[in-house]
Design brief:
Elements: E1 4-11, H1 15-33, E2 37-41, H2 46-52, H3 60-64, E3 69-74, H4 83-89, H5 91-97, E4 102-108, E5 126-132, E6 142-145, E7 153-156, H6 162-178, E8 183-188, H7 196-208, E9 215-220, H8 221-230, E10 237-240, H9 242-255, E11 263-267, E12 275-279, H10 296-308, H11 312-328, H12 341-354
Parallel strand pairs: 1-2, 1-3, 3-12, 5-10, 8-9, 8-10
Antiparallel strand pairs: 4-5, 4-11, 6-7, 11-12
Helix pairs in contact: 1-10, 1-11, 1-12, 6-7, 8-9, 10-11, 11-12
Bound molecules: adenosine-5'-triphosphate and magnesium ion.
EC number: 1.1.1.83
Family: Belongs to the isocitrate and isopropylmalate dehydrogenases family.
Protein name: D-malate dehydrogenase (decarboxylating)
């Protein structure tokens, strides 16, 4: 069997501490399910930048462009390297050059994690947010006119291309179709944004014709955010433009109390280019070096990677093992325990192996 080649970029700070636990757990799942994985490690980070003047070598694209995925820790060392340098020098380059047009984040209530929403049980909340990742409101087209005068004003355009809208909406339908509830919600604001959002709605309905078995609805973004808090059990898959998706993909995990352990995937669904899997958290320099970082975000990101590579059962095994350890311990200090990063990784890997 041909091994899946995965580019491993641990990066900076706690990225270097949680990554070994991610590898340990995904290796355990791979052994159990007979999946061959070849890990290729790259030391692209702020340390690399301080030595070489760039976050990555000039031929970075040739070095990892043919890998099946990128398993990413975190970059950022704000005391020594400005955040825009570290961010634009790696993550955002991948997103653009590898056309990772879907950002996918789960909002799932986990056992042993305190949700800020009262009365919700694990199992109640389990949905995905699909965010458009390349266009929409985050264009840099526009500018300032009559600068410095009383007539001064700024304009910033939104761009919604048919290709860009259709492909992210189609991905969301396909994801919904794979799930039990087969329910897709679209985030809109066509009562206030009178050109781009009606277009989004139109394409959402048009693509829906290809998926007659998926139940759909749409909400304006204002009431949708309210419903994330009031009725989170209602949702299954939610698709949104770049700006609305940005907001929802923080709010969703926040409602389940899991933002510190949540994963995120930047996907090129056709697999023309590698997709990237990472924990939502950053490099957290304040706790780096103590081996107290919670590795669950990294391990959960690995579970999403297994799913993307075509191994849903192995992915589900990893997620179940995370839930077992969240319910029974050990816990790192962020969850009120005394365990070290490696204790959690080891415990989760053991559950995976013994499942
Ligand atoms: P970004 O790099 O995205 O700007 P940030 O600096 O805003 O991130 P993080 O690096 O995610 O934020 O860290 C915020 C705080 O949360 C940290 O200071 C740290 O104390 C805590 N934290 C983040 N990740 C973890 C983790 N895996 N385990 C324990 N605590 C964490
Ligand atoms: Mg930071």
């Amino acid at each position: 069997m041909k091994a899946h080649k995965i580019a491993v970029i641990a990066g900076d700070g706690i990225g270097k501490e949680v990554m070994p636990e991610g590898l340990r757990c995904i290796d355990a799942a791979a052994r159990k399910h007979g999946i061959a994985i070849q890990w290729d490690e790259f030391d692209w980070s702020c340390d690399y930048y301080l030595k070489h003047g760039t976050m990555m070598p000039a031929d970075w694209k040739a070095q990892i462009g043919n890998h099946d995925a990128i398993f990413f820790g975190a970059v950022g060392d704000p005391a020594r390297v400005p955040d825009h340098v570290s961010l634009w020098g790696s993550l955002l380059k991948f997103r653009r050059e590898f056309d990772q047009y879907v950002n996918l984040r789960p909002a799932r209530l986990m056992p042993g994690v305190k949700s800020p929403l009262v009365g919700r049980e694990p199992g109640d909340i389990d949905f995905f947010i699909v965010r458009e990742n390349t266009e929409g409101e985050y264009s840099s087209i526009g500018g300032k006119m009559f600068a410095g005068t009383e007539r001064e004003f700024v304009v910033q355009e939104s761009i919604f291309t048919r290709i860009g809208v259709d492909r992210v909406i189609r991905f969301a339908y396909q994801l919904a179709q794979r799930r039990d509830k087969k329910h897709l919600t679209s985030a809109t604001k066509s009562n206030g944004i009178s050109i781009s959002m009606p277009y989004w709605d139109e394409r959402f309905a048009a693509i829906g014709e290809e998926f007659p078995d998926v139940r759909t609805d749409k909400f304006h973004i204002d009431i949708l955010t309210a419903n994330f808090v009031r009725r989170p059990d209602y949702f299954d898959v939610v698709v949104a433009s770049n700006l609305f998706g940005d907001i929802l993909s923080d709010l969703g995990p926040a409602c389940t109390g899991t933002i510190a352990i949540a994963p995120s995937a930047n996907l090129n669904p056709e697999r023309r280019f590698p997709s990237l899997f990472e924990p939502v958290h950053g490099s957290a320099p304040d706790i780096y070096g103590q081996q107290i970082a919670n590795p669950i975000g990294q391990i959960w990101a690995g579970s999403m990677m297994l799913d993307h590579l075509g191994y849903p059962q192995a992915a589900a095994d990893v997620l179940r093992a995370i839930e077992t350890v969240l319910a029974e311990g050990p816990h790192t200090p962020d969850l009120g325990g005394k365990a070290k990063t490696g204790d959690l990784g080891k415990a989760i890997a053991e559950v995976i192996a013994g499942n």
